[in-house]
């Protein structure tokens, strides 16, 4: 028999077409399904949309739904990491593998430059301001993604970048049910790090760099060779070959016969690990004719692959709905989550970045102090002593040993997330209802960063501690009146309402140093005050909204909606924004001329158009700007006296950014719903873009907010759901979704703007690389070359090359945005066995790998690890290469250029699951209704070209020493009482 959820239920419902997108899992049972069981129920499937629900096949907007079985059983900490490859039109990027990190999601392209492009998250009908980590995937019933104007216009300014509606589980009528899930997993890197040279190769390469560096000082080749041999060990600060080989590399650049390293300490082995992942979830639910309840408890302990990193969460939820009177329904939904994230620095170029530390230090620098014969130097306690490498060159992270210091330090983020929702729904007439609701999200964050006074760089200042506390409180009140009436073949649904949103943010932070005693972590234990800061921000939004839907004979559908928002971010004259949508659909399969074909089970054409706004302006550092129109000041101390400087000028003319969205789609089902699909075209135009306009530093400010330019996103989305095989014991489903995207800047003042390594120009995308073009290596001397473009006296363009990076010409080098994204999912069930898999992929786009350049130096960063690619460096015997010759004199060849621009195309086996459900009669006597055991893998395989770089990078296509994605293998069991 067909099951909605292979993992948690055996109740009969229709399979894959019950949801717009996803894999269907099937659990075999003894009874035989009816032949027409896939037909009518799938066509009438109800989906969650803005401020209510709608029938999927008659809805005029673009909505995709992911069912609970695609989310509940994924070994992910954050629900955003479960969306990649599941929905056409969504670009999901996990920019960090740090447990507890949130993925970046873009729906139908990039809608802004300086304003937020994040979608709005709505939980159980109310916009959500809490941390998404606070929502346990096991509590989720479904996720709806609203992509077009009809679907999102009712949320006005808050829905400009699409909406993700999360519906949590509710109790069902009938006997109380207890679900229990426990899993144990193991995690490691999803992709291997860059390949590096070994100790022997490094010493010979660095000898060559020294020799070439000496030769550049007009020293003869023989003298340079001897100097390189004499100074090699002293320059690197260590001799891993022992006292028997005081000069391990001869004047010919080769290791002396018999020389062999006495140790090989790969720092990745000590700073990275195979980590554990433990999760336990329990929920109890039930209901009667007039009420239902759902209660859950959850625990997660997700260790990171980097030492001292991880995420621990305790969560609970209580949801009750009740019909207290025939005319009154009430409900309450309360959730609380406490989380602790251990997060050592792992996402920037800071020398304390643990990912850098594992990569930068070559294996001939030991992590425990060594004697000349290679044995460990032991401390008074008989244990090895950590080697901090005071002798190491600066490039090799001198005086640092993260393996020693991180266990003594703190990099802790604690959060308490409370979310409460309540509603009352009054039924005045069968067709007339009024619903009032209130929602509050309270997030209390405490950051604790402690550097110990015993070991490492913190010891130089007696240790330090920083504590940060942030409190975010937001609430939303909503009052909605709905009217729903049928008049023969006519059906009218109308909605009108009012909403008010308030946001209050407060933060405070302080730093102290100089601890008199170790192992005391609080600021009171430190004697010297370093800094103290704090600020607060407030935001409010007043809204009025309405919608009318009409259909005739369940065949022709029309809808129109409008919303007016007043945002406190703008001056009074520009405060109100007005947003709208119109849409229609035609259920062609209900027409007699189509029915007579006896081909289509469903055929629906839909179209919509409308506009939404965006007020979420960000500062250049990525922080929100809550007072876009006001003059702001920076307060400083000048010799102990208070001072004030201008931070932002008054900009009363700043107004709403507007998104205009066109959507045209065709949905079909044939062969008794064994093949279903959806094709959509979208055109999204963002105008009056909110942008931080740079200005001359002489003005005393760096930029000011303004409305400039227009961006356009266009593309096609294709989804196909098939059931190639289906019989009493076996079912196989295969689903595919594809999305194309063409992002284009269509209007800009002045024609173009340079922002970092990107160029904003009319006709280009928002993420076009504008960097020098690599021209290879000069085969005559091994120097790096970059392309130059100049204009001669006749006005003709002249191309050339230069070995001086500062003279290279910046040129457009392609976009970071992929041309095609998608996913392929499959599920197979055979009797009590089940299997499912998901492959995600991106085709096109480029990635600037600035991580890789850190180990591609030409020898000027002595002691820093080297990529194995350096074995192909230029020499007189190897003139035709794209790796310059080595030297201790810098040649800037690792500076930003197209040399380090790589293809972003990749495919990843995102999830694989195999399970077995024991026959029910095994447990009837003890009242157990279901018992399933399973094994699953996340990020199992990755197929890509540029080895070492995780291809799943930030949307702008630039790496930043980030925490790599993790491969997780999980074993578990599920039981239902």
UniProtKB/TrEMBL annotation:
PROSITE patterns assigned: TONB_DEPENDENT_REC_3 (PS52016)
Domain TonB-dependent receptor plug: 58-163
One Pfam family from the record: Plug
Keyword vocabulary terms for this entry: Cell outer membrane, Membrane, Receptor, Signal, Transmembrane, Transmembrane beta strand, Transport
UniProt cross-references to Gene3D superfamilies, sorted A to Z: TonB-dependent receptor, beta-barrel domain, TonB-dependent receptor, plug domain
InterPro entries linked: Beta-barrel_TonB_sf, Plug_dom, Plug_dom_sf, TonB-dep_OMP_SusC/RagA, TonB-dep_OMP_SusC/RagA_CS, TonB-dep_rcpt-like
Keyword Signal in annotation: yes
UniProt subcellular location: Cell outer membrane
Oxidoreductase keyword on record: no
Assigned GO CC terms: cell outer membrane
Protein topology in the membrane: Multi-pass membrane protein
Signal peptide region: 1-28
Family: Belongs to the TonB-dependent receptor family.
Stated name of the protein: TonB-dependent receptor
